[in-house]
Amino acid sequence: MLLNLSLRTFPLALDVGSGRGYIAQHLTKETIEKLIQVDIAENALKNAVESEIPTVSVVADEEFLPFKEDTFDLVVSSLSLHWVNDLPRAFREIHQVLKPDGVFIGAMFGGDTLYELRCSLQLAELEREGGFSPHVSPFTAVSDLGHLLSRAGFNTLTVDTDEIQVNYPGLFEVMEDLQGMGESNCSWNRKPLLHRETMLAAAAIYREMYGNSDGSVPATFQIYYMIGWKFHESQARPAQRGSATVSFGDLAKIDVLLSRGKK
Hey, is 202 helix, strand or coil? Predict the structure, then answer.
């Protein structure tokens, strides 16, 4: 999606949930004149990677952006919005700080992310402990995403999904990698620990249900990509209902109509 930015210049852009500034590395000063990086993690901003674009770091919550209305020409967010407690509010905040005809381009983890791990842990807990609690952070369903963006005020929406599958030696390596990425379960009501027997059972279930022929196990990461615009008079609008002059039923006769035109 960042390739689309090369067609336009944005004087002021905002990166919501920037982390160490990974998006900034893929932007150019010909496209973005100035970038504001926002994240709630102060240490991540202090260790941000260098970029050719002039940047300013601001410690703030995505749900309470400290900027005036109609400030930014572009807002981007990459794989951070699944941490937000109130996603509808975060979308409203983003829409508010955008200028008219400004665009929001984002990516976030989707509902099928790590479904193999979730199912394995739940089945193992049910078997060994008689019940289960969430051990993976909750994710948004794609069917809800377009509605949330529309309700926040965005128009001309585009929502797409993609899946990335990564293979690991086993369940324990999956969990170790997630911990290293800082993507452990953030649910406040999560269970404080998993018993050893439950973990071993989950690893066996994981391998039995989802294991590859080479002995590895897959971990699926579903990613939603979204684009939404803030309304402006210059934007294209859908035609008024009932204003069409050609029926879709006539499309079946298009070859006949074209042949008549040639005669």
Answer: helix
Q: Mind listing the pLDDT tens digit of every residue in the chain (263 residues)?
A: 444 555 688 999 999 999 888 899 888 888 899 999 999 989 989 988 888 899 999 999 989 999 999 999 999 999 999 888 899 999 999 999 999 999 999 999 998 999 999 899 989 988 888 777 666 667 888 888 989 999 999 998 999 999 999 999 999 999 999 888 777 665 555 666 778 898 999 999 999 999 999 999 999 999 999 999 998 777 777 667 777 777 777 767 777 766 765 65
Looking up tokens 């078997």, which residue turns up? Answer: 127
Compute CA 92 distance to the chain's CA centroid, rounded to the nearest angstrom: 16
With beta carbons less than 8 A apart as the criterion, state whether 90 and 118 touch.
no
Q: What share of the chain is helix, strand, coil (3-state, %, to 5)?
A: 35, 25, 40
Nearest to 71 by CA among 23, 12, 27: 12
pTM value?
0.81
CA dihedral 49, 11, 150, 61 (to 10 degrees): 40
CA–CA gap between residue 32 and residue 9 (Å, rounded): 6
Neighbouring C-beta atoms of residue 142, cutoff 10 Å: 16
CB 110 within 8 A of CB 140: yes
